[in-house]
Amino acid sequence: MKVVETLLPGCVVIEPVVFGDERGFFFETWNAERYGQHGLPTAFVQSNVSTSVRGVLRGLHYQWPNPQGKLVSVLEGEVYDVAVDIRRGSPTFGQWAAVMLSAENKRQFWIPEGFAHGFAVVSERAVFSYLCTAVYDKTADAGVRWDDPAIGIDWPVTEPQLSAKDAVAPLLADVAPERLPTYTP
């Protein structure tokens, strides 16, 4: 596997080695030893799958306290996947990194704890997979507005379909400091 750094330290793209022939293909989606050698998590406690149609934008979501790291990938379709550093005191606070994830490119995106996450569906339909380092905690569930001008994400959709919760998420500057993770060098 190849691990590709992004502009956000800790957020990496994983490109698997794919073995294939006329019958199909095979690749590892996670291997504790191999991923651990690259400083990635070796234990996940929750696995989620969601489906969405073209134009759906989910995010920007995070949990605090009880943060989740997420190893995400697309099983069907294609999405524009985004991580935003929301750790108070971080040298990259408010900055973002994005990657196209698809069933075709088989890439994964590792979003560490302390980052908000979101994605926009660019194919007709997408099946999205999340491996999480912590269980979902409704009381810690939080979000940041998808189109916060201070963050300035260049989304590939202009009028996305949003959940009611995402449509009213606060700007990053309006989130109370105690509701954001703290950067630890």
Q: Beta fraction of the residues?
A: 35-45%
Superfamily at the CATH H level? Jelly Rolls
Poorly predicted runs of 5 or more residues? none
* Cα-atom radius of gyration: 16 Å
Class derived from helix and strand content: mainly beta
The total number of structural domains is: 1
Strand order of the largest sheet: 1-2-10-7-12-5
Describe this structure in words.
The protein has a 6-stranded antiparallel β-sheet with strand order 1-2-10-7-12-5, with no helix packed on it. Strands 9-8-11-6-13 form a 5-stranded antiparallel β-sheet, with no helix packed on it. Helices cover 5% and strands 39% of the residues. Strand 1 (2-5) and strand 2 form a beta hairpin. It has 2 helices and 13 strands. The protein has a single domain, classed as Jelly Rolls, CATH 2.60.120.10. The chain is globular. The two termini are 27 Å apart. By secondary structure, it is mainly β.
Task: Supply the key terms.
2 helices; five-stranded antiparallel beta sheet; Jelly Rolls; 185 residues; single chain; mainly beta; globular; six-stranded antiparallel beta sheet
Helices and strands in order:
Elements: E1 2-5, E2 12-15, E3 19-21, E4 24-26, H1 32-37, E5 46-53, E6 57-63, E7 70-76, E8 78-85, E9 96-102, E10 108-111, E11 115-121, E12 125-132, E13 141-143, H2 164-167
Nutshell version of this structure?
By secondary structure, the protein is mostly beta strands. It contains 2 helices and 13 strands, in the order E-E-E-E-H-E-E-E-E-E-E-E-E-E-H. Strand 3 and strand 4 form a beta hairpin.
